[in-house]
Amino acid sequence: MGGLATAARMVAGGARVLVLEKYTIPGGSAAYFQRDGYTFDVGSSMMFGLGDRGTTNLLTECLRTVGKSVETVLDPTQLHYHLPRSERHPQGLDVKVWNSYEAFVAELTSRFPHEAAGIRSFYGDAWKVFNALNAMDLKSLEEPRYLIEQLFKSPRGCLSLLGWLPANTGDIARKYISDPELLRFIDAECYIFSTVAACATPMVTSGMVFSDRHYGGIRYPKGGVGTLARKLAEGIEQAGGAILYRANATCVLFDEAGAAAGVRLSDGREFRSRAVVSNATRWDTFGRLLGGREPPEAEKLFLSRYKKSPSFFSMHLGIRADVLPPGTECHHVVVDDWDKMEEARHTLFISIPSLLDPSLAPDGHHTVHAFTPDWIDAWEGLSPEEYAREKDALCASLLRRMDARFPGISSAVTFKEVGTPRTHRRFLGRPDGTYGPIPSRNPLGIITMPFNTTDVPGLYCVGDSTFPGQGVNAVVFSGFGCAHRALCDLGLEKSWPLVDSGYRALIRAARMAAQKMGPKDGEQEPAEVTRSGAPLGTGARPPVPVTNNIITFAHQPAHVQQQQQQ
Length: 566
What we know:
This protein has helices spanning 2-12, 58-65, 101-111, 116-134, 144-153, 155-164, 169-176, 180-194, 203-217, 226-238, 282-287, 297-305, 384-405, 421-428, 472-489, 497-516, and strands at residues 17-21, 32-35, 38-41, 72-74, 77-83, 93-98, 219-221, 242-244, 249-254, 260-265, 270-272, 276-278, 306-308, 311-320, 331-334, 348-351, 365-374, 413-419, 437-439, 459-461, 550-554. It is α/β, with parallel strands linked by helices and 566 residues long. The chain has three domains: 2-37 and 45-49 and 226-307 and 436-519 and 526-560, 3-Layer(bba) Sandwich (FAD/NAD(P)-binding domain); 76-217, no CATH class; 311-424, no CATH class. The strands form six sheets. Strands 6-5-15-16-17-14-18 form a seven-stranded mixed β-sheet.
């Protein structure tokens, strides 16, 4: 989705764009598949950014950029938390995040009445972050002309946002809240979108999530999440761009000056361009796609500050509708033990999107996507028989946990398809099936997170390895920034070239200085987070001359895939 967003904005800005998509359909983890009359979302069904007001409705704006729109259904809740038992909550902490902000605050305050002021203050700070962002036309934070324009347009919002850049959510929460159980709840609030606790989640990111769910709302696209990518792809092509499917990128091409100048595919075809945007992770972009070139120092530092998050074990289920009680919400999070929340196979996410869009399932049935974080190491080296047994055992375990929340659901299953981290690696091309990068130690807010430009001239990165991180709306934000910066560099948007070089040097120096800072007292130095991979050869085949302004390529190259079972 980051690559599609970049392409949409760039083709609308006058660039000639070629999108190289590895798979047969667009969208990656925001795509879909169909089985036995069910339509399943590959990844999350919880969509932000589809509202109709403000500037943070990035999915709506991205679709509008290429003349498209989607019909959506407003979810009355973001999700329903089922959290551990405690002395105060002997039946478990049960909280619904309502679309209405006041209803949510009232519900949370009823669980922690002694923290009423702290709850208001903490989530009030989240609104301050959101309001600052929502006052800006969201483009590239790497473009000084744009930033100066925004400063004059909204000086209070810009200056306010500047103060939040180095802040982490956990630090802000502890300013106002002391109750350990409530602080763990805020950890869960962060974990569901960042896969790390509040202390490692930038406040800028949390501010967007904690506020937009009430401002723009959680809206489900009719027909499934895959509708978003299909509409974007249609719009890109209708606006003059091109999309090539089954296009496995294996190497970035360079000109004599060392600038990125095109892409080579696994079938030998080569496409030349004035710029290249990689929607692959940074591990693949700089570890496998540079043709044996040494990664820039900034990328080595990134790998010292960030590591791969776990992947997921997923169950896509068809169930009888009569097993769900009236009033069941679409999205659920189950945590049975606070101390295990961040461990593999513990936190359980459950989505039932056919509650919002009945067309996704046959009459009298629902689609269910249940998934839990998991590491690929647990699935390596297994025989086919062992692999099948392990899948069946974990599936049965998760269904038992679901039975505790939805009695009888395991016996109501009429269709089941199971995926492991190996499935994510194979079909989504993610190294180790990872969800994305997470800090290997507490970050300085978003300051250590890389933006779209790289130290390789002409090469840009987009997606969850760039600011602001994971999530569909987040990678679309990344695409907006990437497209704006690249359009400026191509001379298709106004910029200040003389100021650009100095400003880029400044933010690069600031980020590298932040990355080089040692761990705080009590923190450990990060463990080695990269895995070795043989570099690609550059070859000597002459390129096919294609005069694209820009090429984007999505997912990882074919050589990353492991030819293993699903």
